[in-house]
Amino acid sequence: MVRTLAVAFILAVASAPAAAAVRFADWAPESIGAVIQAAAAQDGYVMVVITQPDWCPGCIQLDQELLRNPEAEGIAALTADWQVLEVLGYDEPDATFLAEQGLGFLGTPTTLLLRPQAGDTRLGDARQVAAIVGYPDDYEARLRQAAEGYDAVVAAQAVVRERNDVASLEALAQAYLAAGQADPARRVFQSLLLREELTPEQQLDISLRSILQPTQRVENDHARTLAELEAWSTRYPQGLERPDYMYARAWALLATGQLDAAQAYIDAVYTGSDDADTVAQYLYLAFREPTRTLLSAAEARARAAITEFPQQAARFHSAHGRLLRRMGRLEEAEQAFAAAVDTAAPDNPSLGTYQGQLEFVRRELASRGS
Q: Structural domains in the chain?
């Protein structure tokens, strides 16, 4: 099967020795069995980098500073004998591939370190040695520790036995989630919600995350998410205007094919808003959601937002570029990302992200031209 242009290009770039510290495997969904068997035969590791280096700030940093940095000798040596796969977590066909392989993740970037054994047929069958969410400062050290036998869940369990406080339980829940273990994470969240020292705001936040993180993000069970959100909204009506609730409900409606209900809800909570953060969240939803039904209207809204919020023009140029790229309009996306770079102040913390977006789309254009 021929993979999408973006994925094919990423793999081609990643295969060039001068361009990357990490040697990414050349793979396709139908050949993943061979990758698993090769790792199992050597009692070795498969490292799965779930990423979106076309727009995700942490992914761009991880790419530039470590994985594709020719001077990152430590990560190069550590992964030299591993099978390393790069997978676009939210783009097709990779999103379906992850689901079929039984791999869940909290967000991008997520790095999974797996140790397959003989007889494993899916990546999800392999023992998960580590899961690193984001790009923490000790990313390489965590990978090295995991390869040497460190278990983050076991370590978090030990801290709970010692301290048994809100912070240690929260850390244990996150360790389970990072390891793709939704049910144990739910049980920890339930224990957290029984703690008398929680403030009402903490209770609200943890109760919502106990739905969004295990059910929607790790398991991708959007029907269950909707049912749980309905019960949550009845118990916590004060939370209906929380951005994370609004986004999750809209996404779940779209993901379950309830397009009319989704559009009605989106119109009610997003359309016509004059709040920059709400508009930005709507544009992010439209860019990421799987049905692509919001793209056209969102592209027009992004163009309007550039002039409507002049102090945040770079932010909305970038949002416009992401939408254009998603629509396949790469030349226009390049112009939008260039405008974001040109408009951003030198001390803008997102400038590196805008530059990474521009670099990525220019590579795509060069690949298409060749």
A: 5-147 (3.40.30.10), 270-370 (1.25.40)
DSSP strand pairing (110-115 vs 46-51): antiparallel
pLDDT tens sequence across 27-77: 888 889 989 998 999 889 999 999 988 788 899 999 889 999 999 999 999
Mean of the per-residue pLDDT values for the chain? 90
Burial of 216 from C-beta contacts in 10 A (0-12 / 13-18 / 19+): buried
Query: What are 72's two structure tokens?
Result: 């990152």
Contacts with 26 (C-beta within 8 Å, 6 or more apart), sequence order: 11, 15
Per-residue tokens: 78: 């550590």
pLDDT for 370 = 54
DSSP label at 82? S
Cα distance from N-terminal residue to C-terminal residue, the chain: 21
Structure-model confidence comparison of residues 104 and 321, the more confident one: 321
Note the pLDDT of residue 187: 97
Closest CA to 282 of 348, 205, 291, 297: 297
- Residues 251 and 222 sit within 8 Å (Cβ to Cβ): yes
| Tokens found for residue 314 | 């770079």
Distance between CA atoms of 244 and 284, rounded to whole angstroms?
Answer: 12
Cα distances from 237 to residues 104, 195, 208, 231, in angstroms, run 30, 21, 12, 10
Residue 287 has pLDDT above 60, yes or no: yes
